[in-house]
Amino acid sequence: MNPISVPLETESIVLPNGTLVVATAKNCWLSSGQTFSTEKTASGLLPATSQDSLRQLLAGCILAGLGSSKRAQPKPRRPKTLPSYLYALCSGYRTAAATPPAMRLAAATFREQGLLALAAHAAEVAREETGHDLMVLRDMNALGIDGKRFVERVQPAFSLAVVDHLQALASSPHPVGVFGYAYTLERLCALIGQRDIDQIEALIPPGLNAMRFVRLHSGIGAEAHHVEEGLGLMVTLGAADRATAALAAYSTACMFGAAQEPPSDREVLAIARDCATEPDLISPWLCSVSADLAEV
């Protein structure tokens, strides 16, 4: 097997599955069993790095995580039907509700350790994300569904596992992994562009404002800015802490790569009917979607 030549200024990290991620300021490479050769061996992370190099390193970790399962997809699932959109909102509700308390817990630990910059960043993330779960409920209410009842009835196992992962990271003695977790979610959400938003909007009955959450958590919302903020914080970390954050980004991406298929539209619609608050509002689009399903 021919060795792969990479530039001299590199950083690298070995992931738990044995994949080697090598990054420069412009590119990243993934290797499983290949031999990397340079005039100067690139081993581990440098004491200090650039934001561009860290961006590439994290990209490699996320790509490796997404590719760790045969069910992996390069982007977050895009809802194709109104029922699948409702199901996706339930996943978003779980992660949105879990983020503020987890970040506040991490902030408290950092303050105890005298790491005030990290504490301030975690506290700011908690502040910015507070109330985003309520957007999901408002979006569902706009569709004539009791949002609180619906999210209690529909609890995607994938999102519950992601929340458990975040809580474990936040509860660790030195919780820098929460920054890698947050970066992964924000980077994946930033892939949702205007075309995706338009496709979802086409599912929503005219005149209803039921896309607050997805608009904000997309590439046309706040996520691109949050991605840069996260990078700006992590680039200040030492090599060991950057490695911890990168491994957390990888483990979080692994969960997205292994996410299971959602339930059928019929199952979701049945719950939506049970949770209807305004039958006159929900009936038209329920009947329309049900008719479409009957033709399948």
Written account of the structure:
This protein has a three-stranded antiparallel sheet, covered by helices on one side. Strands 1-5 form a two-stranded parallel sheet. A hairpin with a 5-residue loop joins strand 2 and strand 3 (20-23). It folds into two domains: 4-66, no CATH class; 82-279, Heme oxygenase-like (Heme Oxygenase, Chain A), CATH 1.20.910.10. The chain has 296 residues and is mainly α. The protein has helices at 51-66, 82-112, 116-129, 132-142, 147-153, 157-170, 177-189, 194-201, 212-216, 223-234, 239-257, 265-274, 279-294; strands at 4-5, 11-14, 20-23, 28-31, 36-37. Helix content is 59%, strand content 5%. Helix 6 (157-170) runs antiparallel to helix 11 (239-257) and helix 7 packs across helix 11. It contains 13 helices and five strands.
Sum up the structure in keywords.
296 residues, mainly alpha, Heme Oxygenase, Chain A, 2 domains, 3-stranded antiparallel sheet, two-stranded parallel sheet, 5 strands, elongated
List the helices and strands and how they pair.
Layout: E1 4-5, E2 11-14, E3 20-23, E4 28-31, E5 36-37, H1 51-66, H2 82-112, H3 116-129, H4 132-142, H5 147-153, H6 157-170, H7 177-189, H8 194-201, H9 212-216, H10 223-234, H11 239-257, H12 265-274, H13 279-294
pLDDT average, as an integer? 86
User: What is the highest CATH level, the class of the largest domain?
Assistant: Mainly Alpha
Number of domains: 2
Please bin the fraction of helical residues: 55-70%
CATH topology of the largest domain: Heme Oxygenase, Chain A
Instruction: Spell out the helices and strands N to C.
Output: EEEEEHHHHHHHHHHHHH
The total count of strands amounts to: 5
CATH architecture of the largest domain: Up-down Bundle
Structural class: mainly alpha
Amino-to-carboxy terminus distance:
50 Å
Gyration radius from CA atoms, angstroms: 21 Å
Shape descriptor reads elongated
List low-confidence stretches: 35-43, 71-75
Task: Walk across the major sheet and give the strand order.
Answer: 2-3-4
Mind telling me the CATH superfamily name of the largest domain?
Heme oxygenase-like
* β-strand amount: 5-15%
